[in-house]
Design a protein that fits this description.
There is one protein chain. This protein is 60% helix and 9% strand. The chain is an alpha/beta fold. It has 3 domains: 2-131, Rossmann fold (3-Layer(aba) Sandwich); 134-163, no CATH class; 168-320, Four Helix Bundle (Hemerythrin (Met), subunit A) (Up-down Bundle).
């Protein structure tokens, strides 16, 4: 790796440079923090090793300046610390230092510390690749790593531990919708009733869901309610942004529509009506009515979440029988 070292003690700086070169790294040395800052500004380094106390610019100030830059790559900063100097390690960490190595530097100890820095750099490169132009399969999210070779994303990021779970939208699409369609097919009365647009939570819909929940699909109502609760966080942000700006991008309209469908599923008729009003706004109406409409929708969202919590607690004992 390319490493910038900053140390005002000539012998200490020379010895550290020799150790790093012996470990196979490309080293640039600076006699103090100000010189190191100039070299870093000219060409950022993935790793900086800095003394704590130096003339002109010390280690903490150098770290703060580096963190103040908006570089694409993360710089790993290691503090060289002497016990007799008594640096405040906590304040150095707050300034932006990532790790601490005591002087005199032990070669093997430093090698292990730099191995950590190298892993962080490699993970950062992989994340940037994924965020920029990494080719992913639209269906299974496999990664293309050659002209005709595909691998699982977990194998591509082999040094990252992945956990797997459904996001709220995928859980709804792949599990809950299936149960709702099965309910409509098996229920003699047919499909769920359309919710009353003047009610926060239509009891006819809720009772039908809970009845099917008890008979054949344990947890269905609570799963639907949990999905709405999870999606409500994004909806609240979208409504707040719209209320402040009056701007309603197309992707937000699409999120409104997805949430509206899920409101209908649980009988949230009034919330669904608010979302219809928002999604069908003409551009000239957005700037005129955005504040009142957003506030009314936010108030109804709060009422819906309260109603869901109350109905979930009421349904829980019966569902457990």
């Amino acid at each position: 790796m390319r490493i910038l070292i900053a140390d005002h003690e000539n012998m200490s700086r020379w010895l550290l440079a020799q150790v790093l070169a012996g470990l196979g790294h490309e080293v640039t040395a600076a006699a103090d923090g100000e010189e190191a800052w100039g070299k870093f500004r000219a060409e950022p380094f993935p790793v900086v090793i800095t003394d704590g106390r130096m003339p002109r610019v010390g280690g903490a100030e150098l770290a703060r300046r580096i963190r103040g830059l908006r570089n694409r790559s993360y710089t790993w900063i290691i503090l060289l610390s002497c016990e007799e100097q008594g640096e405040d390690v906590f304040s150095m960490m707050e300034a932006g230092v990532d790790d601490v190595v005591r002087k005199p530097v032990d070669r093997e100890h430093l090698r292990v510390r730099l191995a950590v820095a190298e892993r962080v750099q490699r993970m950062g490169e992989q994340v940037r690749a994924l965020a920029s132009a990494l080719p992913l399969c639209m269906h299974c999210k496999a990664v293309r790593i050659g002209a005709d070779h595909w691998t699982r994303v977990e194998e591509y990021f082999h040094d990252v531990d992945f956990s797997h779970a459904y996001c709220p939208d995928c859980f709804y699409q792949h599990s809950l919708v299936t149960e709702l369609r099965r309910m409509e097919h098996e229920d003699e009365t047919g499909a769920l009733p359309d919710p009353d647009p003047d009610t926060t939570l239509d009891e006819r819909v809720v009772e039908a869901l809970i009845d099917f929940d008890r008979r054949d699909s344990p947890g269905l109502f609570e799963d639907l309610a949990d999905g709405l609760r999870d999606s409500a966080r994004q909806l609240r942000k979208d409504l707040g942004d719209f209320g402040r700006t009056g701007i309603l991008p197309e992707y937000v309209r699409q999120r409104f529509e997805r949430f509206r469908v899920r409101c209908i599923d649980v009988g949230a008729g009034r919330m669904a009506s608010h979302l219809v009003d928002l999604a069908t706004l003409e551009p000239q109406e957005q700037l005129l009515r955005h504040g009142p409409l957003a506030n009314a929708a936010l108030a109804e969202l709060d009422a819906l979440l309260v109603a869901l919590d109350e109905r979930s607690s009421d349904a829980a004992p019966a569902a457990a029988i």
